[in-house]
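Q: Here's a chain of 529 amino acids. Please give me its 3D structure as tokens.
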Amino acid sequence: MKVFNTTAVCIPSKHYMVDLSERVKEIKKLVDDGKYFSINRARQYGKTTTLTALRGLLTTEYLVLSVDFQGLGNASFQTEEKFCKGFVGLILDKLEYGLIHISEEITGQLREFVSDNEENITLAGLMRIVRRWCCKSEKPIVLIIDEVDSATNNQVFLDFLAQLRDGYISRDTDETPAFQSVILAGVTDIKHLKNRIRSEEDSKENSPWNIAADFTIDMSLSETGIKGMLDEYEADHHTGMNTEAIAKSIREYTNGYPFLVSRICQLLDENVGKTLGLSESWTRNGIDEAVKLILTENNTLFQSLTKNLNNYPELKAAIRSILMEGTKLTWNSDQKDIVQMQMYGLIRNDNNTVRVANRIFESRLYNLFLSDEELKNNVFSREGELAKNRFVEDGKLNMRLIMERFIETYTQIYGPLEEKFKEKDGREQFLLYLRPIINGTGNYYIEAQTRDQKRTDVIIDYLGEQYIIELKIWHGERYNAEGEKQISEYLEYWNLNTGYMLSFNFNKKKEQGIKIVQVGQKTLYEGTV
């Protein structure tokens, strides 16, 4: 029986996985056209799995030399000689294991080359043998290098790229034999490697990879692709799930991030299924349980995400500004921070606006930033924890009571609102109050489409129930009426009849507390601080 896999490469005969055939066909077109290119995506974004599927498609027409630079080690990048010996060693290993075919003539030349005197083992000498190999090979040769990040900050690797570039140019100008295609896969965009090694002045030109074609193929998992994977699982397990609806829900949480898609499915199958039973686990309620588990994990993806934020304080500040303050950033592919955030998988381009990559990342980052605030000011945590039981009735949140108690507690602690108050301050304080109440049982996220300086919708999932709360600063009756109309429309989208609004009002004559407002068929509980 197949299983869901979240470690290393996914294999169709062993694992439930999205069909990648159309994607690899698109990549093959680049190879057929003789392109050199990079596949740069964030950690655990399916690069190695895609390359494995691509090799299988290419082998009928090409000789595929696929190597992993993690197998070289740092010492191999210290000198040309060590790099050449390490690279040839990877080739000879492939030959020994029967993974590629090389003529005895070329094999002999490779062995003789690495046994020569040190001064004769150079990149130029290696490339001369490569050209002979390309000339004599029965099939065009495709070079695939995975985990190219292992070579970053190494001048020898840049020199190797320059040799590949020269081969590419010579192939088209004077018909010198060269690789049919070269594919570099990793997180780091090769265009930025020079910046990390050379001085700023030198880095502005003569990039060793300036001949690379743009790689614009979408590697996220589509809703249709996820459904196909679930259809296969359903045929084996007969859970009775609605594969189309479940695929849609998983895509909404993950935006197709391959690791997160597989991890949700893995948890539904192996963890949630044991608690709720398989039939109940493959429902919206089961997905919420799986997401709750993911948000508490310390997996390698989240470790990488946190490491990148800590290593780049500017990135962390930019992400925090987007999430906590509703800052709108226009997408700019020339802006350094935006490029790096995208490279690490933190953000995406949503209609030319910067968005956090997916809903799970948003929730994880919110928890991180709120934890930072708790360390500074923990006035709400104990209050929420102590009153937790009174806010839950028959397994449902009493959101009206939560709002009432928050207003009372906030007023007691902070007193009247000050003009310097910003909406993000109220948003943070309300979420700090809410977290200990739902912690361990529910989770929340912020609706990206409504997050701005004036208005934010918080969606809470608690034991299969959804609660929509709009947080905003009071800007008068007209603006409030518009907000009522917007949230009622949003409730209609969620098939809910009850919503909540919490306004932070600076008017001295305001009426603080909760009132009930009817908007069409929708009931709104409006709270005023």
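Q: Can you summarize the key feature?
A: The longest helix spans residues 155-173.
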